[in-house]
Design a protein that fits this description.
20% strand, flat, six-stranded mixed β-sheet, 363 residues
Length: 363
């Protein structure tokens, strides 16, 4: 999973990126201190994997990972090249989802490109730039299909209709993701690198002083906007995340407890990202390795096996599956098998979050 962190300059993107990846990206109080996108890979915390590691004492422990890309601050006019905008917009096209950091604090010591914090205006500024960039992109696609239609080939009509539907939506300054598409249209849409089609996780970045009572007006505004478009929203303080990143696990737990927080902002972001993208994890376990594998919710067993190796999918015979909770309750895989809790599943089995699986295959 690849997530692009976007927002206006000086909203806390690089501070957040530094905190969650400990990558030390430059963070300064002026616009465009991030020119090239910084990339950091983060392990997905999963207590189930920890418990499997205790059970098997494996040689290797491999959690799922998320790649975060810190994309430089976008400004009004980015779609026309303002503030190196075209370059930054191109970086966003490569991610699975957008993490939109919104400034929800006032601080005269931190410059705001538009004078001061205003979440509604800031969100609209970024959204509009993505839409304007998509309009240019769709114009090129439409021209191409119309030229093909001139040759009298009617097979392009459905594609043209789909593109015109998207273009009409964008012209109303509405993102492409607010449209619904049928099965035929989805075949055309999946080949489009549309920015406004990408799912969005809004991150309301609050001041440290608001962490104990984060339900401030700025945050309510972001939550309302997210809810109205069916997006996810998490509330964090990038500054506090930066402090958490410097602590060892025991200190981190104590620090979170002192703040009255049940989990870090990073953990909240990861959970929300999985939910936003409809992802789950299945687990493989043995003395050689315990590992988490990320798949789309609804994936069938052979395709899940293909995540490990294409041969597993090609030669799929069956999946031996036990629910994580059942395995833990029994204490060992052998005990779970004895109780009939290890099931033999075929090609039509739909994987569930937390399935512990052994794939049988023959190539």
């Amino acid at each position: 999973m690849k997530l692009g962190i976007v927002g206006l300059p000086n909203v806390g993107k690089s501070t957040l990126f530094n905190a969650i990846t400990k990558a030390g990206a430059e963070s300064a109080n002026y616009p465009f201190c991030t020119i090239e996108p910084n990339v950091g890979v983060v392990s997905v915390p999963d207590s189930r994997l920890d418990k499997l590691a205790e059970m098997y004492n494996p040689e290797k422990y491999t959690p799922a990972v998320i790649e975060f890309v810190d994309i430089a601050g976008l400004v009004r006019g980015a779609s026309k090249g303002e503030g190196l905008g075209n370059k930054f917009l191109a970086n966003i096209r490569e991610v699975d989802a957008i993490v939109h950091v919104v400034r929800c604090f006032d601080d005269t010591n931190v410059v705001h490109v538009d004078g001061g914090a205003n979440p509604k205006r800031d969100i609209e500024t970024i959204e509009l730039e993505l839409i304007l960039s998509d309009m240019e992109y769709m114009d090129r696609r439409l021209d191409k299909v119309r030229k093909m239609m001139k040759g009298g080939d009617k097979k392009f009509q459905a594609e043209l209709d789909c593109y015109e539907k998207i273009a009409a939506q964008l012209e109303q300054e509405k993102p492409a993701r607010s449209l619904t598409f049928d099965e035929e249209e989805m075949e055309f849409v999946k080949d489009l690198a549309l920015l406004s089609l990408k799912p969005v996780l809004f991150v309301a970045n609050i001041a440290e002083s608001d962490i104990s009572n984060p339900d401030i007006e700025y945050v309510k505004t972001v939550k309302d906007i997210a809810a109205s478009s069916g997006e996810e929203c998490v509330v964090i303080s990038a500054k506090i995340e930066e402090e958490i990143a410097m602590l060892d696990p025991d200190e981190k737990a104590m620090f979170l407890e002192e703040l009255g927080l049940s989990q870090s902002g990073l953990d909240k972001m990861i959970q929300a990202s999985y939910k936003l993208l409809g992802l789950i994890s299945y687990l493989t376990a043995g003395p050689q390795e315990v590992r988490a594998w990320t798949i789309k919710n609804g994936t069938k067993a052979p395709q899940a096996a293909g995540k490990i190796h294409s041969d597993f999918e090609r030669g799929f015979i069956r999946a031996e599956v036990v629910a994580f909770d059942d395995l833990m309750a029994c204490g060992t895989y052998a005990a779970a098998k004895e109780k009939g809790l290890v099931r033999s599943e075929g090609k039509e089995y739909v994987m569930k979050d937390g399935d512990v699986v052994l794939f049988r295959f023959n190539v």
